[in-house]
């Protein structure tokens, strides 16, 4: 795993040191920056590229929703792992819908923290088993029939490349389309599937066992 730089944001030094220790254990040569509030986080993000951002969402003088929204608007490929003491069933889905890749309870043990970090570092989604079950139950209730059958061939292509982790620019280049055309198909795909982001697209594809090799 080739990694270079991480950012840990938490206003408690003991938490930052603990996370840094686990990150260094996973990636010994990773450079780790530290922040104590949202303003510092965004300053770091503007100056450097990070392989992972571990963000406490309860830092002083920090609106977590606005901070994450701004980070992903500035660098849409950012891998964000939220580290929080808030009840996951009440808050996690809100952050996933913004585009974070993971939500981790601060009560988690070292092995679970390590698993979450490794998962997000490889561009995969991390959530606890309880949260995943709850999320899938909600999606089953909302989609009784396979919603992918409602997509056109082009919309299925767009969905396939989004599921593969392609950015809008990469999809444009791969399919030789105008950027506005990609954007329009993406919006229509999300509307037909009744989803709001790529996270929900991935969960829906897993739920209906979408075979990308056949698209």
Structure summarized in a few sentences:
The protein has 215 residues and is an alpha/beta fold.
Keywords:
215 residues; 2 domains; five-stranded parallel β-sheet; alpha/beta; Arc Repressor Mutant, subunit A; Rossmann fold
Structural class: alpha/beta
CATH topology of the largest domain: Rossmann fold
Overall average pLDDT: 88
How many discrete domains?
2
Provide the β-strand percentage band: 5-15%
Number of helices: 10
CATH architectural grouping of the largest domain: 3-Layer(aba) Sandwich
**Biggest beta sheet summary:** 5 strands, parallel
Compressed to H and E, one letter per element, the order equals EHEHEHEHEHHHHHH
Helix content: 40-55%
CATH class type of the largest domain: Alpha Beta
* Unreliable stretches covering 5 or more consecutive residues: none
Structure description:
- The chain is of the alpha/beta class and 215 residues long.
- It has two domains: 5-127, Response regulator (Rossmann fold), CATH 3.40.50; 143-214, Winged helix-like DNA-binding domain superfamily/Winged helix DNA-binding domain (Arc Repressor Mutant, subunit A, Orthogonal Bundle).
- 54% of the residues lie in helices and 11% in strands.
- The chain is built from ten helices and five strands; from the N terminus they run E-H-E-H-E-H-E-H-E-H-H-H-H-H-H.
- It has a five-stranded parallel beta sheet, sandwiched between helices.
- Helix 1 packs across helix 5 and helix 7 (153-163) crosses helix 9 (179-193).
- It is globular.
- The mean pLDDT is 88.
Explain the layout of strands and helices:
Layout: E1 5-9, H1 13-26, E2 31-35, H2 38-47, E3 52-56, H3 64-74, E4 80-84, H4 88-98, E5 102-105, H5 110-121, H6 129-142, H7 153-163, H8 168-175, H9 179-193, H10 198-207
Helix pairs in contact: 1-5, 2-3, 7-9, 8-9
């Amino acid at each position: 795993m080739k990694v270079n730089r991480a950012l840990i944001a938490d206003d408690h030094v003991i938490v930052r040191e603990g996370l840094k220790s686990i990150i260094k254990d996973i990636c010994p040569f990773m450079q780790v920056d530290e922040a104590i509030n949202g303003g510092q986080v965004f300053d770091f993000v503007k100056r450097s590229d990070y392989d992972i951002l571990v963000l406490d969402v309860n830092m002083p003088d920090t609106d977590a929703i606005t901070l994450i929204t701004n980070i992903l608007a500035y660098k849409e490929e950012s891998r964000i792992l939220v580290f929080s003491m808030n009840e996951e069933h009440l808050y996690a889905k809100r952050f996933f819908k913004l585009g974070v890749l993971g939500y981790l309870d601060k009560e988690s043990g070292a092995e679970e923290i390590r698993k979450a970090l490794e998962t997000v570092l490889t561009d995969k989604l991390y959530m606890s088993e309880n949260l995943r079950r709850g999320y899938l139950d909600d999606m089953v209730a909302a989609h009784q029939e396979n919603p992918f059958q409602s997509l056109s061939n082009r919309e299925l292509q767009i969905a396939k490349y989004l599921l593969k982790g392609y950015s809008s620019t990469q999809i444009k280049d791969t399919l030789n389309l105008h950027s506005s055309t990609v954007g329009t198909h993406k919006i229509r795909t999300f509307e037909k599937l009744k989803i709001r982001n790529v996270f929900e697209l991935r969960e829906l594809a897993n739920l209906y066992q979408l075979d990308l090799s056949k698209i």
